[in-house]
């Protein structure tokens, strides 16, 4: 039987870190050393490696807190070129640090439209740790990337034997293995007994595509997130606007509300031409464009969490989309 051909693009993160002490699951990020993509694959048993024809593509070895929109654009370009130049690929696996994985996966899902599965995977424990989860997660990602039923579902995130839609998933725990969750709709499927199961389809997929302005002299617009709390006075909002923000995500108190002082600052931002999206700092649930937001010219983030809403807003602004078109993107469930 012909083995599925999988490209593994490594970008660093915990899955590619090791420490001197196998008990270290905390300090490795600052004092550990990096592994290459070949080392990640070598951690899998030979019988597992024999199931796939893997092509390793090194991209970076940085921690995920160092990832930026320009780096994700570069990563998306590498993925697109890899798929276009290697028509025999069954799928692509991207190893990524978990701190910004939900943002990176969301970005890739918003800009890529590829015929084969793209799976993003990370780890909570370094490769040197007792019961490191990286090898198991990587094996699960290889299974999903090689599964024909995974194609056409957009970018997927695989962790702890669960399959999540890139725009629905969030990192919920600092150190526990079951950190990636899709709180509103649940996982799309699972890996069980070496088989890939999809239990539901994602009924929607926001898609922006590659902004024509990028790479043609166009700049990535500044979009900031302001976090609401009792007594917040709006100073941060005004500072972001003064720094040149073209968009703001207001991570409000549930169900998506800010203090009177913050609202005054947000209204000033709207009057200055800044696109403001009202989101919620909560774990789950959506923000709807209620009457008050419409009256004030604020958009509503729907079910997108603030960090992913920032990605969507920045990309939408790069395409030249107007407020109505941006709201339509956020309105999808």
Automatic annotation (TrEMBL):
Record keywords, A-Z: Hydrolase
Xref: CDD domains: L-asparaginase_II (cd08964)
Natural source organism: Komagataeibacter nataicola
Record-annotated membrane-spanning stretches: none
Source species, domain of life: Bacteria
A biological-process GO annotation: asparagine metabolic process
UniProt GO molecular function: asparaginase activity
Family: Belongs to the asparaginase 1 family.
Pfam families for this protein: Asparaginase (PF00710), Asparaginase_C (PF17763)
SUPFAM superfamilies from the UniProt entry: Glutaminase/Asparaginase
Domain L-asparaginase N-terminal: start-end pairs: 6-200
Name the UniProt record assigns to this protein: L-asparaginase
């Amino acid at each position: 039987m012909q083995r599925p051909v999988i490209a593994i693009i490594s970008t660093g993160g915990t899955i590619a870190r090791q420490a001197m002490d196998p008990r270290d699951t905390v300090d490795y990020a600052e004092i550990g050393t990096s592994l290459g993509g070949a080392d990640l694959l070598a951690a899998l048993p030979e019988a597992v490696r024999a199931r796939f024809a893997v092509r390793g593509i090194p991209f970076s070895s940085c921690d995920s807190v160092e990832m930026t929109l320009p780096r994700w654009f570069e990563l998306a370009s590498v993925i697109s070129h890899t798929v276009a130049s290697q028509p025999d690929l069954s799928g692509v696996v991207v190893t990524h640090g978990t701190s910004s994985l939900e943002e990176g996966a969301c970005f890739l899902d918003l800009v890529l439209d590829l015929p084969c599965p793209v799976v993003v995977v990370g780890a909570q424990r370094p490769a040197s740790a007792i019961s490191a989860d990286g090898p198991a997660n990587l094996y699960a990602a290889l299974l999903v990337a090689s599964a024909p039923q995974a194609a056409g579902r957009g970018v997927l995130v695989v962790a702890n034997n669960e399959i999540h839609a890139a725009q629905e998933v969030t990192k919920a725990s600092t150190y526990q293995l079951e950190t990636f969750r899709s709180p509103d709709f649940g996982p799309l499927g699972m890996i069980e007994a070496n088989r890939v199961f999809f239990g539901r389809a994602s009924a929607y997929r926001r898609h922006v595509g590659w902004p024509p302005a990028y790479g043609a002299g166009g700049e990535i617009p500044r979009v900031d997130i302001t976090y609401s709390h009792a007594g917040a006075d709006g100073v941060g909002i005004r500072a972001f606007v003064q720094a040149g923000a073209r968009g703001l995500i207001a991570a409000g108190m549930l169900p998506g509300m800010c203090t009177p002082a913050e609202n005054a600052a947000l209204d000033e931002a709207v009057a200055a031409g800044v696109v403001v999206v009202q989101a919620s700092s909560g774990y789950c649930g959506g923000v709807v464009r209620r009457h008050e937001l419409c009256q004030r010219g604020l958009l509503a983030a729907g079910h997108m969490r603030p960090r992913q809403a920032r990605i969507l807003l920045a990309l939408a602004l790069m395409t030249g989309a107007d407020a109505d078109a941006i709201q339509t993107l956020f309105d999808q469930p």
